[in-house]
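== Polypeptide entry ==
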Amino acid sequence: MKSMTGFGYADFHSSALQASLEIKSYNNRYLDVSVVLPGFVAPLEPEIRAFVAQRVSRGRVEVTLRLRELQLNLRIHIDEATVGAYGSALERLREVAGLDEPVTIDHLLRFEEVVQVEKERRIDDYRTVVHELLQTALVDFDARRVREGDATQRDIRRQLERLTAALEVVAGYAPQMEEGLRRTVQSRFSEVLGDEVDTARVYAETASLLVKYSINEELARMGAHLESLDAALSESGALGKRLDFVCQEINREINTIGSKSFVLDISRQVVEMKDALENIREQLRNVE
């Protein structure tokens, strides 16, 4: 079991480059990958997204890459035609203004088009570094998610124990509910008809009420759901959605038991089961 919240970090240092990569994730119903990169390595974004998507199933994942170049490969280009045009224009301007001051290189360098500086970068030079950082950060990221997932699993199992214990108490009251229905029907018939009670009619009414208010089917289904939940907790992979579905089924059975119950102790156990189940569902919101 893995948590959807996690953090991973990796860095790289060389004489030419300093780099760091950070991964953060938060709860989200689906997988949503956000990548923040320096502009000159933007072509690597699809590769990073695909890399993350192969290893993460759900959650909002933020990947941030920082790069600092310590050595720059520069290419300087002098536009000779532009230099000549600006030089001629400045000379003409000096003559028209009647100035004795000569045109200098400082005057020409004020025009951006005269000298153009380009940084020579090849994307392949960064790709290897970025992939190594991503792999290292994801190992750290997964380890943290597993640790948090283990803690979540332990808490879910504690809540599952509460559910199981409460269900056993409810199951113990099921025969009492049925016997209470029989006595109630017999008493009502006796109050109205006295000694002229039709036994067959009493049995028919009792059977009808037992079909309506019996919780045996709910107890059986809920027991099966709890076993399924317990077994799934030991499995690997993305479990969040499946476990949430099982919890929906358990919630349905608890509600049905509560609606049928007229025994105070069963109603108390229904409240206990609802509380435990809500705690489980709260934890599952953070499970991948």
